[in-house]
Amino acid sequence: MINKVVANADAAIADIFDGAILMLGGFGLCGIPENCIAALLQKGVKNLTCISNNAGVDDFGIGLMLKQKQVKKMISSYVGENAEFERQLLSGELEVELLPQGTLAERIRAGGAGIPAFFTPAGVGTEVAQGKETREFDGKLYLMERWLRADFSIVKAWKGDTAGNLIYKGTARNFNPMMATAGKITIAEVEELVPAGQLDPNQIHTPGIYVKRIFQGSDYEKRIEQRTVRN
Fold first, then answer.
1. Residue 106 belongs to what H/E stretch?
2. Which residues contact 1 (CB under 8 A, 6 or more apart)?
3. Distance between alpha carbon 165 and the CA centroid of its chain, in Å?
4. Total Cβ atoms within 10 A of residue 145
5. pLDDT, tens digit, 9 for 90 and up, residues 129-180
6. Mean pLDDT confidence for 77-82
7. Which residue, 66, 63, 11, is CA-closest to 223?
8. What is the rounded CA–CA span in Å between residue 72 and residue 152?
């Protein structure tokens, strides 16, 4: 069985180039590839198009890449926690494509499934529909959306094996699994790395066939965007 392990995040992202299209997994700050983001900051790669559910916060996640002016364009669905994102958007420094969250998820899934376009009712009659084809089905208007694919998909899993099979935990399953299928090269960082054959095949969420490189990460902060507690 092919061993896909690399030493660390620096080795995993070494060939990411200026102008690349990246998918970065996670939902809010849950399940984001913290180690790879840190390596991208250190590498200083620029003019990136980043496809992610959100843009992190000002001092964590993709927000740090925005602060360092590494991101040329964001394709996202929720960006309300990031003041630097707002500043760059309003000043014209950052290209932004905002999408309904379900549309974003389906465009990524379509990219992984090899489906170049699909029709959805979400966004019809709004700014989301500008410049896009609409078509009527059974008396209702639908909007055509194109697939999303990336040069590199960077995902975070709870556990993986040396062959690249991945298991996610909880909310980290929202975007990571579909992004893992939609990149030319998929890079996975995991909290626990085990030898091939030790994972229960019935529990695997991403088969190793999709994963090119895998490494065991460290020092995860796992921040919470908005901590709300009772008095």
1. helix 101-113
2. 162, 163, 196, 197
3. 18
4. 23
5. 999 999 999 999 999 999 999 999 999 999 999 999 999 999 889 899 999 9
6. 82
7. 63
8. 16
Output the six-digit token pair for 21.
Answer: 């299209």
Label residue 51 left, alpha or beta by phi (over 0 means left) and psi (-120 to 50 means alpha).
beta
User: Which token pair is 230?
Assistant: 């009772």
**Architecture of the CATH domain 9-117+147-216:** 3-Layer(aba) Sandwich (3.40)
How many CB atoms lie under 10 A from the CB of residue 193? 18
Q: What is the DSSP letter of 66?
A: H
Which DSSP symbol is given to 127?
G
pLDDT bin (cut points 50, 70, 90) of residue 81 is: confident
Q: Name residue 134's amino acid.
A: T
Which amino acid appears at position 17 of this protein?
F
What does pTM read for this prediction?
0.94
Residue type at 140 in one-letter notation: K
